[in-house]
Amino acid sequence: MSGKATYKTFKGGIHPPYHKELASGKAIRPAPVPAEVFIPLQQHIGAPNEPLVNPGDRVELGQKIGSSEAFVSAPVHASVAGTVKEIAEVTGFTGAKVKCVVITPDAEQPGFARKDRDITALSDQEVRDIAREAGLVGMGGAAFPTHVKLTPPKDKPVDTVIINACECEPFLTCDHRVMLERPHDLVQGLKLLMRAVNAKRGIIGIEANKMDAVDAVRGAAKGEAGIEVDILEVKYPEGAEKMLIYALTGRKVPPGKLPSEVGCLVQNVGTAVALYEACAWGKPLYERVLTVTGQGIKEPANLLARVGTPISTLIEACGGFVGRPGKVIMGGPMTGWAQPDTSAPVVKGTSGIVVLTPDLVDVGTEEECVRCGKCVDVCPMFLLPNFIVQAVKKGQWDRAEMWGALDCFECGCCSFTCPAYIPHVDYVRKAKAEIAALKRR
Amino acid sequence: MKVADKMLVTVSPHLHKKDETIQRAMKDVLIALTPAAVWALVVFGFNVVYILAVSCITAALSEVVMRKIMRRKPTLTDYSAMVTAVLFAFLLPPTTPLWVVAIGAFLAVGIGKELFGGLGKNIFNPAIFARVLLWFSPLAVYTTKFVKPFFWKASGFFTPIATSINEGAVGRAVYKTMAGNPVADLTTAATPLSLLKSGKWLPDMVAGPTPVGATWLNSGGKPSFWSLFIGAKSGCIGEVCILALLIGAAYLLWRRTIDWRIPVGIIGTFFLLTLVTWYHPIYNLFSGGLFLGAFFMATDWVTSPVTRRGKWIFAVGIGATVFIMRFWSLRPEGVAIAIFLWNIGTLVIDRYIAVPKFGEVGAKAFNRLPVLPEPAPEPVKK
Asked: What is the ipTM of this complex?
């Protein structure tokens, strides 16, 4: 029993309460089919899709129902077999209206008909094409189209593919469960990613609070050339792209640059498994594993949910609320979106639904900044969040940029640790929008 | 699909560190100051309690009244006024007249904090601000005369004693009770640093009873290192017992309320400079307000730099300034002035000293404003 083991990590960051035990022991089970699915036409960062179906049309499971000619986009597929009811504007999880294909599912839902394919013979271009056709996006939350990430600039070859298996967000356990239940598929997915960018090295980075997953994945990766499984310190935001690359490889992505700058590519666990499914089975991304958890949920669970399922269906599938919900968050509690009601549909990037009880909601009132510098200490990007806030309050956009507003990836460590309860992230978003508007002129 | 009650919608993050509030930090400081206050009570008698009480009550009243006048929301519950009041009292000689204490406490909270915009906007550490103001005011005579430790043994533990102007000799002080009766046998005593300034301490150390006026903890008639460290010496209320201050500081460091870089930088720089010049390093280190200033005044969140790099510059600057003040200036002590000056420096440090962002290569040393296009002019309303 030596002291505390030290694992790879980055500088800064915080130790939030994790509460992973609520759902980490629950095996993945399929979620029920809702009465209606609402499939947003745009679930990724990039160009919006145009609908390929009309109201009244019959759609099959996995049929492509929206796509775009643009390179930075990902098509969407029907998550149920049924009839298109309408194409309507629905309030999405961000609170903004999004264009959705509303489908009424058939009473009897077919299973997915696998079209098995030999993945060992696929070329890099074929993997990229399959990723695009399957509508793959980053499933950690950002939802950036995968095939775009798999197309790094010619002059910046990628030598290392990293699987982000940190799941540093508190509460969420979906990646943990996927690693436990499908380690083989994850490793195969990583191999496909490595092939797509011609990388020789693959690293799976797992936080030290998931040692069972480390064992499972190490078992599956045994004998695979170039694949390592590394353990990372339990700290938030360990899974932030730049932090993860630094922790695992010691390389630092310069501000404003992409990971390809240092020869790295980072993909989420869910994305790697989805790529394997797309390549090996011909299955498009129409469903995903997500965690429904929190003290405000009767039976926390890891569900395989169809894209377009309203939150309310999933909450009912988990026994409903315990008492009155304080906050319902789509995504993790550090970067997720609080929901005014439970009508928003699940998208490809939804990693979980967290329900906090009212007594766990710690909002506080925003006070004057007392310049304690705690936000500066925890900022993993070494920015000055307090001065960004100050600049935004005064409308000094040049100063906001000087203090690093554009380099912030909104992890929320600053607000978490702020004794004055200042919502830095909110101010940063405003600064980003204003600076972008000024630069467009 | 409807939810029975309203749910709360805020921006991310949705978690907050437990117990991380301004209030908690201020309470921590108050707790950390307790050992020094207890020791002050032992060495200077109940006078300390009178001064603390007047300081706290005046500070609280000043804050309430000033905020009312300026139509700000009341913030008495954040305890920051109490911290300022206690720290200010700690900077005073144990026989400061209570009306001077009241004026000082108002200067600290009413002017030094509230008039600058309240907690977070003040440029100077309020307690230091008031102390320096009093120092350079006509009231200086009341705040620069010290009595020997355990003076209450002659006058009584609970008897309030106050410095009073000696009509006979300009610049000298006498000590009177509240009723106005002079206290016999009570005269101004030299602090360790004023002894050092007058160059007397070395011969006294060999021959005299003790340069610090302590009669216990000494052996063989020589002053011990312990009388300086434990605090059997004359000086300001809160500064005398280094041990008590270190206990409080350890608590604050353990609670992560203060940053270790500032005290380490100040004390380290000062000690190094006294070592290099061989200016009685140990004697100097444990005399005066160095520890009180380094751990409790300079670490004030509001008036110290927010970046690590800035904190080091700030701390080294204070340490060097304290040395310059003690070595070359006419005054024996310079901690308050040094912190006061570097409070101004904080603004410059924070604005100009650049911190390289994660992954930034070829980082610059100083911040420069980026040039953005001018925003579109506001449309003129007709």
From this structure: 0.88
